[in-house]
Each structure stands twice: as structure tokens, then as C-alpha cells.
Amino acid sequence: MKGIVNNWHNISVYIAGAIFVIVALFVTDSLQKVLLLSAAVLFLHFFEEFGWPGGFPYLGMKVMMRSDETDSTKWNCNNLSSMFGNWIAGTLLYILPAFFLNIKFLTLAAILLSVAELIMHLITFNVKERTLYNPGAITAIFGLTPIACYYFLNIYNASLYVWYDYVFAFLWFAVIFWFCYRSPVYWNLGKKEGYPLTDQSAYGFYKPEK
Q1: Are 148 and 42 contacting, i.e. CB atoms less than 8 angstroms apart?
Q2: For the residues 175-184, what does the mean pLDDT come to?
């Protein structure tokens, strides 16, 4: 089990590949394709952030958690909490809506994730760190964003939604984000031993000097 957890970001690549194959062979509905393709790209996104080049945990600690701690063994973040948070979020925000297309706010919440990823990786992280690239930027900008644009240009119809669809979408997104990345469950998993981040996962190309 620990072997699976500690390689969750590598396994994510195979999950992405499986989803691509399923979409190519079995999915005909355009909205369902958008959601499942977004899920596939998100799993590749996990690999970019934690596998290669990796380094997102250190970036997240600096920018999102505003921590100056550079020792990854002292973070409340490990492979177990990372797998839990990312896989659950991807499943609830992208895969679940693909099977409940009639629940409109679920689709809006999924697209909200794509927009949030674009803002974080294109603007927030680069501005804060004064860089042109950050771990996860390629899949966010060149993967999730084009799919979201296709949705808005070819599928989205404002007349099909009412105001509370947008409210529910935001609330659903916020609850999932909290549960996956800020809840006691997430923090407690991050404290468990046996699931350490490798230097590649934790720092990527930017390991700070001690």
C-alpha cells in the first residue's frame, strides 16, 4: 500500500491515459468529453507538480501557506495527504459531474477549477516568485485552459442556468477545496510517517540551500 501511495503521482499518468482511451472509444457527449478530458489533464497536472519536474509542495508552502520552512520533513504534507487531496478533488470536481450532467452547478464548479488553476499558475505563482514557470503551469495553461475555452465557446449557454446554479457551484468548489486541502483529515494524513516526499517531489529544480 505504501508503495502505491508514494508513487501516486506516477500512477496518475496511467490514470490519465486510461481516461483518454475511454473518452476516445466510448464517450460521444460533448460536455461529458470536456469534463473527462479535463480530469485526464488534471492527473497529468499532478505528475507535473509532484513527479517531474516536481517542486509544487515547496512552492505551495511559500506562496499559499506563507511558510519560510524549507525542510520538507517538517511540513504537514506528504504523499498520503497529497494523494488524498488531489485524487479526491479531481474525482469530485471533474469525474463526478461527468455522470450527472443534469446537475448544472457541478459542471460550473468543474470549470471554476480550470479557471482557478489558470489564475494560480499563470499569474499568482509567477508574480509572487518572479518566475516564468512554476510546477503545474504547462498542463494548466496548455491543457486545462483550452478545454475550458472550448466549453465556453461551444457548449456554455447562459440561458440554461439560474443565479443559484452559480452560488451552488462556488459553494461546492469551496467545500471540496476545504475538505481536500484544509480539513483536519488532510492535516492529520500529512503527519503520518512512512509517506515522505522525495526531494524531486518537494523541491523540483529549486531545492533551497541549507
Answers
A1: no
A2: 98
